């Protein structure tokens, strides 16, 4: 099990685990997440160059980027998630490497590498997250950019180390997130509970969370510098009240 209160073993990390639990419900649970602003921002950042998406999933961002004319590649640990991408129009044409995005290679001349929806935290340790930044940098051409979407840790939301958060409330389906915090190791164990028309799915996920400043240091270790930080894909400036961030780190141009 990837989440819940099972003892945590970073060495046993399985990049396919999330998709095994999440694939069945993923598109329904993310149907309300309009990708338009993300796609506009990524289009602007890519300047027409090729894009690799780490954790491409079912193609929520990759397919509209490809439809707007970009060359898009992906890496994903989950064959189940990629099978859903393949079933969609245009999904067969996107090259995808199945494997862990902290280590596998999909090329080395990308203008943009993208890691959306907090998936940097799916990596089980600081070491694995640093490896991911280094891998992103290896995928980029000089001047290329690595874009990460992530929440800002909110340890104040927890009482006695636990929190229950309604994520979606609809007549036909409800999604709750039940979480336990381990501040000493910057870990949050969650199980999402999706109740829909008489069926219940449990989607466990571990997070090794980090503050933006720690991610900046990981980027620095990988030879990249912060270029932009916004609080959302609409590019609202990041400030004291921001609960999430879109961060863009840049690899230096050759002649820098
Ligand atoms: C929350 S989904 C995001 C999917 C897509 N990027 C989107 O925006 O809808 C996270 C995706 O990352 C994949 N994933 C998680 N950890 C991974 C890892 N270490 N290596 C490769 N893929 C991973 C999961 O299988 C899943 O498809």
How would you characterize this protein structure?
With 256 residues, the chain is an alpha/beta fold. Helices cover 25% and strands 32% of the residues. The strands form 2 sheets. It has a 7-stranded mixed beta sheet. A 4-stranded antiparallel beta sheet has the order 6-7-8-9, with helices on one face. It is globular and about 50 Å long. S-adenosylmethionine binds next to helix 1 and strand 2.
Count all strands and give the number. 11
Helix content: 10-25%
Number of helical regions: 6
Mean pLDDT metric:
94
Q: Outline, from the CA principal axes?
A: globular
Predict the CATH topology of the largest domain: Rossmann fold
Distinct small molecules? S-adenosylmethionine
CATH uppermost class of the largest domain: Alpha Beta
Strand content: 25-35%
**Structural class per helix/strand content?**
alpha/beta
**CA-to-CA gap between the ends?**
46 Å
| H and E string | HHEHEHEEHEEEEEHEE
Instruction: List the domain count as a whole number.
Output: 2
Instruction: Report the C-alpha radius of gyration, rounded.
Output: 18 Å
Name the CATH architecture of the largest domain. Answer: 3-Layer(aba) Sandwich
The CATH superfamily of the largest domain is: Vaccinia Virus protein VP39
Largest sheet: 7 strands, mixed
Kindly list the characteristics that best describe this protein.
alpha/beta, 32% strand, 256 residues, binds S-adenosylmethionine, 25% helix, 2 domains, four-stranded antiparallel beta sheet, 11 strands, Rossmann fold, seven-stranded mixed beta sheet, N-terminal domain of TfIIb, globular
